Amino acid sequence: MKMRHARSVLLVDDDPANIERMRMALGNLDLTLVDARDGNDALAKLARHTGPNGFPGIVISDLMMPELDGMGLLIKTKSLDADLPVILVSSYGEIASAVAAMKAGAYDFIERPIDIDDLRARAGRALDTRELVLDNRRLRTELANRPDLAARIVGNSAAIQTLREDIANIANSDATVLIHGATGTGKEVVARALHEFSKRAKARFVAINCAALSESIIESELFGHEPGAFTDAKQRRIGLVEHAKGGTLFLDEIESMPVGLQVKLLRMLQERTITRLGSNEEIRIDLRIVAATKADLREAANRGEFREDLYYRLNVAELYIPPLNDRRDDILLLFDRFAREFAARYQRETGRLGGTEAERLVSHNWRGNVRELRNVAERYVLGLGNPRGGLGPLLDGISGAPASLPEQLDAIETVLIRNALDANNHNAQGTANALGIPRRTLNEKMRKFGLGGGD
């Protein structure tokens, strides 16, 4: 879903009768129509829009005009705003002019006599394209102007705003943190943010996935070993705990740590010392522990699968990352972020995301969470799944059934209200009027969807 911007059309023609005919054709649409008598007049009117988005619409111009003609206007508008759609109009049979205009970057070319339905259809497509461009610019400006923490933990949903506040509150402490979140929600991203916004930021961030290492080697990986500690231990090895000296040690999927090793981890947390395998020497350590889990550790402790005392040691501070399906109004922002990231990496254009494709992104059942969305964005930038670009089948056949109807309706309603708020400068009464709902209803919905409580 794209943000709803004011839609304008700049009509350029030196013949007032032609202007009037186009006004009649477009007059019953929800548009702001602006007239210009020639190319120079049009440029003067475009120059009034000095904001980051430029002119909030499209240009429909006659090709043959005195002073500055349609082709000259096209070239000058492209130098002002390369993404501004310009539709040129000319007399029947101007094939050479049409070809030249399209090569110069015209969005479309219409021959006279103008068919009203054809003009409305072409203008509508151009306006949709412009709206997507302006929405993408808004998203990019929003990201560019964010503080560093908000640039790392992306999202406007209430849950993500709370998460950012919690990170800011505890980042600079040495408190042990336990991060809860399903697979793919971004637990390591949060752990890195805790490190990067702490006083330990200049030291190392060391991550270890407890589920990725076998029980036979995880102790050596964590605590290191001396020569001869076990078969093939031919030289001393510094473990990851020592390697993280002064910094942060991130233990992902802590629920997978063998119970026997949990005892040693508990001792490390209590005594702040470790002992390498094959040694009796205690080594003092200075680091912060951040652990993450996709399981309920309290339930695991009740089943005897996780030490209860270790759970309480880890659970000094807790952070919860919501699944992507619970923060659907963040999906387009995240997708735009990932698409731009991959476009820069692969030196590709991101392409234009149509309204229908945006709706599919918002309503899709993201069982793989942010990791799955990132994967779709990468494949989208690479053009996989659809040689003509677009999402195509990238969302087909993954993640199972789509979100429920109430979830989809909530996501759609959230985006519509947020866009209406943006269009009305966050004036609650103006937004309520634009949406055709009572002010009280708007305030209730804003609170429900984490959009604030109105002004």
Based on the model shown, name its key terms:
single chain; five-stranded parallel sheet
Outline the structure in words.
- The two termini are 25 Å apart.
- Residues 397-403 have low confidence and may be disordered.
- By secondary structure, this protein is α/β, with parallel strands linked by helices.
- It is built from 19 helices and 12 strands.
- β4 (86-90), α4 (95-103) and β5 form a beta-alpha-beta unit.
- The protein has helices at residues 16-26, 39-47, 70-80, 95-103, 116-144, 148-152, 158-170, 187-196, 215-223, 240-243, 259-271, 297-302, 308-314, 331-346, 355-363, 369-382, 405-423, 428-435, 439-448; strands at residues 8-12, 32-36, 57-62, 86-90, 108-111, 177-180, 205-209, 248-252, 273-275, 282-284, 288-293, 317-320.
- The strands form 3 sheets. A 5-stranded parallel sheet has the order 2-1-3-4-5, with helices on both faces.
- Helices cover 47% and strands 12% of the residues.
| CA-based shape | elongated
Major sheet characteristics:
5 strands, parallel
Count of alpha/pi helices: 19
Helix content: 40-55%
Question: What structural class should be given to the helix and strand makeup?
Answer: alpha/beta
**Beta fraction of the residues?**
5-15%
Placed side by side, the strands forming the largest sheet appear as 2-1-3-4-5
Strand segment tally: 12
How far apart are the termini? Answer: 25 Å
Radius of gyration: 29 Å
The parts where pLDDT drops under 50 for at least 5 residues are: 397-403
Q: Whole-number average pLDDT?
A: 84
